[in-house]
Specification:
- This protein is α/β, with parallel strands linked by helices and about 210 residues long.
- Strands 3-2-1-4-5-6-9-10 form an eight-stranded mixed beta sheet, with helices on both faces. The chain has a two-stranded antiparallel sheet with strand order 7-8.
- The protein is globular and about 45 Å long.
- Helices cover about 35% and strands about 20% of the residues.
- The protein has one domain: NAD(P)-binding Rossmann-like Domain (Rossmann fold, 3-Layer(aba) Sandwich).
- The structure holds NADP nicotinamide-adenine-dinucleotide phosphate.
Length: about 210
């Protein structure tokens, strides 16, 4: 699958490595190919560094891995995304794309695309790079949004890169809850000091 990742930082780079390992064709869409993050990402084998316009045009699926407010300036560069799936990994915790509650809401309203899903936002980038915990197997991922096709694709991608399950958190009305869930991970891992090698896994009694 042709995947464009907008953002070459922690999340974009971790996902790029895993998607390449899973056999996908990954292009980074960048605003500045000479930035330190772009330069570092350009060393990830199997990826190419393109402008946001070029990466978006080539892609079947576009992953947003920038600060949430960046969607306001980059969305015009995505071009026509009606037939593309957009996966939003952002969390509007410290900043948000005013006047929207989250980047998901901004993307949906501005692009007029329905094929949007929130996913890969609820754990640290280290866990995206390596979702396997030796005693427990793959950790869990979560996704939210109204569009079934986008959600199924995100779930499939999450499992391909090693997550054990990608739980459906619900529709558009659960997107902000999923960002709060990410804040719960940040709270435990960082604010409460348990460290970033910590992850969520749902268990069910048979
Ligand atoms: N870090 C985590 O563990 C984690 C986990 C889950 C979700 N998230 C969410 O994922 C998103 C990315 O986090 P991160 O830690 O990967 O960030 P990061 O390392 O700071 O990288 C941000 C990337 O976004 C790019 N960018 C910033 N403004 C842009 C704009 N206006 N147009 C195009 N590109 C722009 C930067 O490009 P330049 O190189 O040009 O600066 C950089 O490549 C955030 O929304 C965060 O809330 C993070």
């Amino acid at each position: 699958m042709k995947i464009a990742i907008i953002g070459t930082g922690n999340v974009g780079s971790a996902l790029a490595q895993r998607f390449v390992q899973s056999g996908h064709q990954v292009s980074f869409g960048v605003r500045d190919a000479s930035s330190p993050k772009s330069q570092k990402a350009s060393t990830i084998a199997g990826t190419t560094l393109l402008s946001i316009e070029e990466a978006s045009k080539l892609a079947e699926v576009i992953i947003i891995a920038t600060p949430p407010e960046a969607v306001l300036s980059l969305v015009a560069q995505l071009g026509d995304v009606k037939n593309k799936i957009i996966i939003d990994t952002t969390n509007s915790i410290r900043t948000r794309p005013e006047p929207y509650a989250t980047a998901y809401h901004a993307l949906k309203e501005i692009t007029k695309s329905n094929k949007i899903v929130k996913c890969f936002n609820s754990t640290g980038f280290e866990n995206m790079n390596n979702p396997i915990y030796s005693d427990f197997g793959g950790i869990d991922m979560f996704c939210a949004g109204d569009n079934k096709e986008a959600k199924a694709l995100a779930q499939n991608l999450a499992k391909q890169i090693g997550f054990s399950e990608c739980w459906d958190f619900g529709g558009d009305d659960k997107v902000e809850l999923l960002e709060k869930f990410a804040l719960s991970w940040i709270n435990l891992a960082i604010m409460q000091g348990h460290g970033r090698n910590l992850a969520f896994k749902v268990i069910k009694r048979a």
